[in-house]
Amino acid sequence: MASRQISHVTIVGGGTAGWMAATLLSRIHRRSDGSPGLAVSVIESPSIAAVGVGEATVPAMPRTLQ
C-alpha cells in the first residue's frame, strides 16, 4: 500500500483546547516559505457557550503562545 501524507486535519470541538491545537498544528506544519503545509479546520457547536477557564489552566501558556 502506498503511503499518503496527511494534508488536512479536522479538530472536533472548539474552545481553548480546540483552537490552541489548530494553531499549534498549523504552525508546526508550516513550510519553510511560510505557506501552510497542513489545512486545519475546527468544528465547534454554536449552541455551547464558552466556559472561559482554559486559559489559566496551563502554566506554560505564555511560552506556548510565543
Structural class comes to alpha+beta
Report the sheet with the most strands, covering strand number, pairing sense and barrel closure.
Answer: 2 strands, parallel
Helical percentage? 25-40%
Radius of gyration: 14 Å
Distance between the termini: 40 Å
Q: Which stretches are poorly predicted, pLDDT < 50 over at least 5 residues?
A: none
- Count helical runs: 2
Strand order of the largest sheet: 1-2
Structure write-up:
The chain has a domain at 10-47. 29% of the residues lie in helices and 15% in strands. The protein has helices at residues 15-28, 61-65; strands at 8-12, 39-43. It is globular and about 40 Å long. The model has no long low-confidence stretch (mean pLDDT 84).
Topology (elements, then pairings):
Layout lengths: L7 E5 L2 H14 L10 E5 L17 H5 L1
Parallel strand pairs: 1-2
What tags apply to this protein structure?
single chain, 66 residues, alpha+beta, 2 helices, globular
